[in-house]
Write a structure and sequence with these properties.
The complex is a heterodimer of chains A (218) and B (193).
Chain A: H1 2-15, H2 25-41, H3 45-65, H4 73-78, H5 80-86, H6 91-121, H7 125-153, H8 159-180, H9 188-216
Helix pairs in contact in A: 1-6, 2-3, 2-6, 3-6, 3-7, 3-8, 6-7, 6-9, 7-8, 7-9, 8-9
Chain B: E1 4-14, E2 17-27, E3 32-36, H1 43-51, E4 58-64, E5 67-70, H2 82-93, H3 98-104, H4 120-134, E6 138-142, H5 150-165, E7 169-173, E8 185-187
Parallel strand pairs in B: 3-7, 3-8, 5-6, 6-7
Antiparallel strand pairs in B: 1-2, 1-4
Helix pairs in contact in B: 2-4, 3-4
The chains are: A mainly alpha (218), B alpha/beta (193).
Chain lengths: 218, 193
């Protein structure tokens, strides 16, 4: 337990915006997309309100890719995982903690930034609420996919670009149900998104740990 | 519990190349062993196999007691000040007296310096501080003298002697002469495949 706390403290200090490795870049990227979209399609309020929710979802997905580069590579190169295995701290634990820290570092801020983005796109109250709930349900899944892919590509040259490409197809189910909830009167889409997220969060630490062990053998 | 480190008939393959085979060693408490050999003969790989980080191509390794490894990879966050980077490992290892290692290795003046600004020798000393703080019976040191000045080299040799005097085991891979207590040495070239 104390190992998990020590890991969480370190991960947060590295990943949080303002921390030594983190940044607000994903957030600015997210807001920039919401800002550019009305410029690109024109000031048709009805069109913006109808498509805005989907745009926020796409922007959130792409913003979730940005922090992946720093998620695992640095620690693998610095031998942190070697030292952790010597201390019998499993890669699974390290990755589960990192998943939580990674989510904390980008998702809450993203949810806050959704409010100005929704205002920029002229979304009504109902749509904004559905988008927020959907993102709350979907971002853990995005974080999980991101972590597993970051670990898989950590030992490759140019892994970061590849990670971005690999995340997109894996994140499609979250996008379909999360953004799909916007066109349904009930909450089934959001619940589906949450279910996918939970499944991914349960799998990701094991997948990421296996990837790290494979990379250590090299 | 008595520390013990045994390797039986191990072989190491990297890619398509068999680096060494039939290598056996047996370390009892108080033993120090220097691994010698030119670059690329497999000193670091041997240490990683002994640490359990690399599977040997053949043979087996068994150990009793916690293993500490110092190699060229620092495992300290480059952007954080040294004090903060070391503090993570101190918390993880439950170290109660980190001051002693800092004192022995003369790292106190560097605690506020981000790790990436440290010189090679200072980084090596920081990694050794992480090892000392952990208080583990088996030390695996990979080129511990690299980048260290003469005085620091002497104090590392003294640390190893002290560690072995207290019943610890030290395996030192170094291409430089390293005064290990007892003077046992193992040349990997003897086992070259």
């Amino acid at each position: 337990m104390s190992a998990a706390l020590a890991l969480l403290r370190r991960d947060l200090s590295l990943l949080m915006p303002g921390g030594s490795g983190g940044g607000v870049l994903p957030l600015l990227f997210f807001l920039a997309v919401a800002m550019l979209y009305p410029f690109a399609v024109g000031p048709d309020a009805q069109l913006l309100a109808r498509t805005g929710g989907g745009v926020i979802w796409v922007a959130a997905l792409l913003a979730a890719i940005l922090p992946l580069e720093k998620l695992v590579t640095g620690d693998l190169e610095a031998g942190v995982f070697d030292q952790l295995s010597l201390r019998d701290v499993s890669e699974e634990l390290a990755m589960a903690v990192r998943l939580f820290a990674h989510w904390l570092a980008f998702a809450p801020l993203l949810l806050v930034a959704t409010l100005p983005a929704a205002a920029l796109l002229g979304l009504d109250e109902n749509t904004t609420r559905t988008v927020l709930l959907g993102l709350l349900a979907g971002t853990p899944g995005l974080a999980a996919v991101g972590l597993a892919v970051a670990a898989l590509t950590a030992s490759m040259r140019g892994g970061a670009a590849l990670a971005g490409l690999m995340v997109i197809p894996l994140a499609v189910p979250i996008l379909i149900f999360g953004a799909g909830a916007l066109s349904r009167p009930d909450t089934s889409g959001i619940l589906f998104t949450a279910a996918i997220s939970l499944g991914l969060c349960a799998l990701a630490p094991f997948a990421a740990a296996a990837a790290i062990r494979a990379a250590q053998e090299n | 519990m008595q520390a013990q480190l045994t390797a039986k008939d191990i072989a190491c393959r990297r890619g398509e190349r068999l680096l060494f085979k039939g290598l056996s060693l047996d370390c009892a408490p108080g033993d120090a062993l220097q691994i010698t050999g030119a670059n690329g003969v497999g000193k670091s790989s041997l240490l990683r196999i002994l640490a359990g980080l690399l599977r040997p191509f053949a043979g087996e390794v068994s150990s009793t007691g916690a293993i500490g490894l110092v190699d060229e990879r620092l495992a300290l966050d480059a952007n954080q000040p040294l004090g903060k980077a070391l503090a993570f490992w101190e918390r993880l290892d439950g170290c109660s007296d980190p001051g002693r290692a800092l004192d022995v290795l003369q790292l106190e003046p560097l605690l506020d310096v981000p790790v990436r600004y440290l010189s090679t020798g200072q980084k090596k000393r920081a990694a050794l501080a992480r090892l000392l703080n952990r208080n583990c019976p088996i030390w695996l040191l990979d080129e511990p003298l690299n980048g260290l000045d003469t005085q620091a080299q002497k104090s590392v040799e003294a640390l190893v002697a002290l560690h072995c005097g207290g019943g610890g085991i030290a395996v030192v891979a170094s291409h430089q002469p390293f005064a290990v207590p007892g003077g046992k040495a193992l040349a990997i070239e003897d086992y070259a495949a």
